[in-house]
């Protein structure tokens, strides 16, 4: 379990993390989401004891990470896949980590295989692609067979096969009862991988909820096609609907449901060619949840 309690971290006048509290539970994959600069990496560094909080604490299985005697056996983490010694081979790198944590050499071969790196185990890391470095970082995190795993943007640089491999791995690790936390910008992938989501913006908690309920927090729209879009738009707006005309001429309608639109169109004698309720995607839910807390807007605001 990872517990973040009242965590506050300031850089000068910036509150990178602001009184943040959440718990990452075992047996689930928890997605950590937030716009650029929201404070995800800073929070994860604090969990690893790489930041000194101005207030609050971050605990791994009830203890500060730095106080763990064999940390790799309690939590495996990948923060920055590029931060490895390029001159070593993958096997030597993992061997070094294993020795310093009292882990047997046999485990090195095991995690190399698990990460799909057995064929390149004796090559220097400097020649690795970003995706291979991500796999190596994940192999290192798995080395101590830890009950808690935490990955910052582990999907970066992975090809579709790699993304699928990681999704299956994370789900099976959670299925074994481990605690799994990962951040990612890839919303569709997160929707497929995570059971639970913690969303932050400007260092503050915005949502801590089951993945299934996140998209459900927001009503989707209704897609309407008609031969008389101008009149139908006017009628729906008069009833308080928000109507946007899409590129192909279809109408995207909020604040009226499909049945209400059908009744209105019938009463006005306006023919309908399509009337389809659409659920909000995770991406839409995320954008709406975080629209007030994005630090970097496109358009340079
Ligand atoms: N070493 C630092 N010195 C000063 N400010 C920092 C430092 N590290 C982070 N920040 C600031 O703290 C805030 C949170 O940054 P952080 O990297 O934790 O966000 P993030 O959610 O991981 O973002 P991204 O998705 O872009 O990686 C940002 O405003 C960032 O500019």
TrEMBL record:
It holds the Pfam family ABC_tran. It comes from Nonomuraea ferruginea. One of its GO terms (molecular function) is ATP binding. The keyword Lipid metabolism does not apply. Keywords: ATP-binding, Nucleotide-binding, Transport. Belongs to the ABC transporter superfamily. Residues 2-227 form the ABC transporter domain. SUPFAM superfamilies: P-loop containing nucleoside triphosphate hydrolases (SSF52540). This is ATP-binding cassette domain-containing protein.
